[in-house]
Amino acid sequence: MALTIPPVASPSGTEAPRVQLFPALTAEQMARITSHGRVRSVQAGEVLLEAGERKPRIFVVTAGRLEVVRPSPLGEDLVTILERGEFSGEVGTLAGRPVLVRIRALEPGEVIEVDRDHLLSIVQNDTELSDLMMRAFILRRVQLVARGLGDVVLVGSSHCSGTLRIKEFLTRNSHPYSEIDLDVETDVQALLDRFQVSVADIPVLICRSKTVLRNPTNQQIADCLGFNAAIDQTKPRDLVIVGAGPSGLAAAVYAASEGLDVLVVEANAPGGQAGATSRIENYLGFPAGISGQDLTTRAQAQAQKFGAQLMVASGATRMVCSRKPYRIAVDGGQEIEAWAVILATGAEYRKLALENVTAFEGAGI
Question: Ranges for the Cyclic nucleotide-binding domain (predicted)?
Answer without folding.
Answer: 21-140
